[in-house]
Amino acid sequence: MDFLLQYYLWIKALHVISVIFWMAGMAYLPRLFVYHAEAEPGSDKSETFKIMERRLLRGIVNPAMIASLFFGLLMLSINPGLFSDGWMHAKLFLILLMLVFHGLFARWRREFERDENRRPARFYRIVNEAPPALVILIVLLAVAKPF
How many angstroms separate the Cα of 35 from the Cα of each of 17, 23, 116, 136, 143? Predict the structure, then answer.
């Protein structure tokens, strides 16, 4: 196997690993918001959720997102022909949506940090479904390459 292909496969593996961590955090963070929204602001429970949310976002979700984007862009730079595939355009659009949710989750975490949440737990239960739905579509596109 030539060096470039071997290098590409290692980058792809690191991309998949980082995406797994990113998506795990993106699935768990809004679930924490559900429980946090039900906690009394200023309570011990609320303060514990603040710590958990901050550590999850800063320690796992943000670094995993950065690694996912880095390795994904590195793969695209090695294989720029992927840009001509329709499935890649759709996948990149869905990734942009995931980044929007990531930004929203970071903003909502800051609102909880300041005890300024105004949304009910039900809102976060609904939002909790978006990242898994997006990742299912992204994986289907990446594996099946339908376009």
Answer: 28, 19, 15, 25, 35
DSSP letters for the chain: --HHHHHHHHHHHHHHHHHHHHHHHHHHHHHHHHHHHHSPTTSHHHHHHHHHHHHHIIIIIHHHHHHHHHHHHHHHHH-GGGGG-HHHHHHHHHHHHHHHHHHHHHHHHHHHHTT---S-HHHHHHHTTHHHHHHHHHHHHHHH---
Query: Angle CA(118)–CA(124)–CA(130) in degrees, nearest 5?
Result: 135
pTM above 0.90, yes or no: yes
On whether the CB atoms of residues 55 and 109 are closer than 8 A, the answer is no
pLDDT by residue (tens digit) across 86-130? 999 999 999 999 999 999 999 999 999 999 999 999 999 999 999
Report how far Cα 5 is from the mean position of its chain's Cα atoms.
Answer: 27
